[in-house]
TrEMBL record:
Has three domains with a flexible linker between the domains II and III and assumes an 'L' shape. Domain III is highly mobile and contacts RuvB. Keywords: Cytoplasm, DNA damage, DNA recombination, DNA repair, DNA-binding. Residues 1-61 form the DNA helicase Holliday junction RuvA type domain. This is Holliday junction branch migration complex subunit RuvA.
């Protein structure tokens, strides 16, 4: 529903902020990782994960798109709720979590408060393949600078859910055969091959 909020930080705490966006103050829960990235800012952009439960509607904000993406992966695991997901991202960095999941390091995940051995194994079991598909640089934000036609096509294919290495391989062969294709032509041709 919400992608991001960009506004003035009215209040900052290690667990939440109040962000004024167009005269409306939003109470947004954050991780310690996000707090460390925004603590010196007056204005900031937070990527939002809007969680609706029977008894609450809660906003979770993240300084980077990658951290939000990892949070959404974590809470998709049975037994991991939004508060536990936020606790995980506050305990160790998103990069450390991603690395531990990809490499199957149960003990690293298990060290996080509220995560027992079974939950740690479940997180790794359910997310390992997804995170491997995304590649090691999935948490690095995509550059906002003007992208080349193949880079733009690659970004689109990754957002559609295709693995980065596989999509890159297909796009490279398409560009080699005809370097003058538009983004749309590249994506359509790649979709036929993926």
């Amino acid at each position: 529903m919400y992608d991001y909020f960009n506004g003035k930080l009215i209040f900052k705490a290690p667990t939440h902020v109040v962000l004024d966006v167009g005269g409306i103050g939003y109470h947004v829960h954050i991780s310690l990782t996000t707090f460390s990235q925004i603590k010196d800012q007056e204005n900031c952009k937070l990527y939002i994960s809007f969680q609706v439960r029977e008894d609450s509607q809660t906003l979770y904000g993240f300084a980077t798109e990658g951290e939000r993406q990892l949070f959404n992966h974590l809470i998709s695991v049975s037994g991991i709720g939004p508060n536990t997901g936020r606790m995980m991202l506050s305990s160790i960095t998103p990069e450390e979590i991603q690395s531990a999941i990809i490499n199957g390091q149960v003990q690293v995940i298990q060290k996080i408060k509220g995560i027992g051995p079974k939950s740690a194994q479940r997180v790794i079991l359910e997310l390992q393949d997804k995170l491997k598909k995304q590649g090691p640089d999935a948490l690095i934000p995509l550059p906002i600078a003007k992208q080349s036609v193949p880079e733009e096509a690659l970004s689109a294919l990754v957002m559609l859910g295709f693995g980065k290495p596989q999509a890159e391989k297909v796009l490279n062969s398409l560009v080699a055969s005809d370097p003058e294709q538009t983004v749309e032509q590249l994506i359509k041709a790649a979709l036929k091959r993926l």
